[in-house]
Amino acid sequence: MRPTAISYSSQLEALRPKLIAFTMLQVSDRGHAEDLVQDVMLAAIEGLSSYSGSAQFDTWVYSILRYKLIDYIRKSKRERQRFISDDNEVDIDTMFDTRDHWDLDATPCHWQSPEDLHLKSNFWEIFDLCLLHLPSNTARVFALRELMDLDTAEICECLDISEQNCWTILHRARLKLRSCLEKGWFLKEGNV
């Protein structure tokens, strides 16, 4: 039996804080973020008749948000100042020894398989917290690439950065996320 429009509305309202938090990674102004999320919620309600249920409802709503954010970023590109990467960068060279092997203190921990991890719902809560604690420019590039699935050329065009800068920011974002996840998830008792 297919859920009613009322149950979808309550699901949307429950999803709203997460949509705003995700949108804030791309849009620094809370008012603009809330406006975009409101547009997404309206589009989702208007598009319920086309929702087939082949994807989870949350995934379907995030895909609407993805397209709204891409449109917003493209429209606001002209207004943006030149993008500058973060000053408090991780010194990657300190993670490796002279033979380019992992330094013992920087060696990645053993992680469980992604298939096992997705079953543990609070992993995604920790991931969201880690993502939200990345520096804003780093989180923006990471979200565009990994969560919104834009290719490097599109990211560089939207943010007016070089391809090399984009790859450097992505690498640093992954290192910071790894470190945060290891501290907040993988190293907790019972999770390794």
UniProtKB/TrEMBL annotation:
UniProt record, GO biological process: DNA-templated transcription initiation
Domain of life: Bacteria
Domain RNA polymerase sigma factor 70 region 4 type: 126-177
Keyword Chloroplast (UniProt): no
GO molecular function, one term: sigma factor activity
The keyword Transcription regulation is assigned to this record: yes
Family: Belongs to the sigma-70 factor family. ECF subfamily.
Protein name: RNA polymerase sigma-70 factor, ECF subfamily
